[in-house]
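User: Round two. Same drill as before: sequence, then structure, for each protein.

Assistant: Same drill it is. First protein:
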Amino acid sequence: MPAQRDYYEVLGVDRNATDAEIASAYRKMAILHHPDKNPGDEGAVTLFKQAAEAFEVLGDKEKRARYDRFGHAGVNGARGGAGGFNDVEDIFSAFGDIFGDMFGAGGRGGRGGRARVHPGRDVRCDVTLTLHEAADGVTKKVQFQRHEACDDCGGTGAAPGATREMCGYCGGHGRVVQAAGIIRMQTTCPACHGAGSTVSKPCRPCRGTGQRLKTVATEVRIPAGVDEGTRVRIAGEGEKSPDGGPPGDCYCFISVLDHPLFEREGQHLICRIPITYTQAALGCELEVPTLDGRDTIKLPPGAQSGDILRLDGRGMPDPRRHGLGDLLVQVIIEVPKKLSPEEEKLLRQLAELEHKNVAPQRKSFFQQLKDYFVGEHGEPAAADAASAGDADD
């Protein structure tokens, strides 16, 4: 697969170019390589598509920011990525407002191109899951808001008794054409906002728009293994198209609550378990929690604090692939702050066996002070030095 060209290079603009400069550069490229101007030239079609692909990314603030930061990897997979336009008709549909009637009616050089329709806008909602729900998958009832036909006017935008009339500004077309030399730009009519008609007495509840914001409730199936920030699409539940196109979609943004025992790292779960010194030294069988209940794992003798044990297949699924992650059990040696007399006695015996220097059971403040200065200067205390001198005499 050939490497993708830099989008700024495709349009011939600087990386600091303004939105207006980018749009202007795209229009020039579109005129130069338009298929109607270059019949039978596949190279021109390729450059025409590349220009449209570059403009879709650089003409969108969010996509441009991702592209500036991550390059093509930040936008591939969306329509703004490589090969996003199957044919030139997709380009006319996507950029009708800026590309407009550049080469005659319908934008296709007198060929009578089809009327363009636009999908409705997408909407969003937020879904919060527990870790168990994220692991198993769940059906959730969600609520979101979208514009629907006004109940008072039935979507006409006209008050009771009033009717809609053809827009005198655009002649009912919903779009107007502006000419600048050989370029003819088609834009949405500013008087009727694309509707093609106006009302003399608008509906008061919807202010003549014919739509009102309403709360919608529906159910969505969340697949097993979703993670924080995952988006789940509910097709066709977005805004209706203003010109008869398909409705938009609803995107559910997933949040997963923190779990008191587990941390998630991709498909793996991490559980930290405290152990005693004797368990670490001698080894044992540890009882560990899992998403399915209790289980046991063998801790080998001589375990160190921070060691990780693995339970295969006890982690999280991934909605994009088969298989489960693992449960990673990290052991932390916990030193007791208080000891019983018997425990202290046994530990001191162990220290003697290991020939380790441990703190004595009792030591006065002055004795500790004396030991400190002896350790600091490497010389015996004054009283000890005098005693040593007497002994020499």
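Second protein:
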Amino acid sequence: MITVVVTGLLMAVGLVGIVVPVLPGLLLVWAATALWAFDHPNHGAWLVFGVAGLAYAAGVVTQYLVPGRRLKAAGVRTSTLVLAVGLAIVGFFVIPIVGALVGFVLGIYLVEATRQRDHRIAWSSTTHALKAVAMSMGIELTAGFVIVAVWVVGVWRLGIP
């Protein structure tokens, strides 16, 4: 019973970690499923862990492919994204909690404003980047909820405390 409670708490922390990027949220949700499966070593628990692993892999791949394509279609260069991610890393350490987002947005805007020399185009690129970040977060959150749902159904169907 204690493993079920700990797994549920870890999953909740992981889901929060997706929205507030302090922890690797989706990885934590999936790892919590692994913890539960190791504590209940039967075929059903491992099946739940396997399905959760598929949901994790699908979420990770989708969260990078779909928003990236939209950014390229909007004309945001890969070099702009690399520099913005670098500024996001700096922002993460300078401003707790929201620094990564602030650094990323500022990075996109500054690079595009320098490159385009037009603030309207730079702001358009920045809004496309923000939409891509929101979409990526939504995809990751959806994958997290799918993993939690698979685990809840597994606990319920297997009757494992």
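The mean pLDDT is 88.

User: Perfect.
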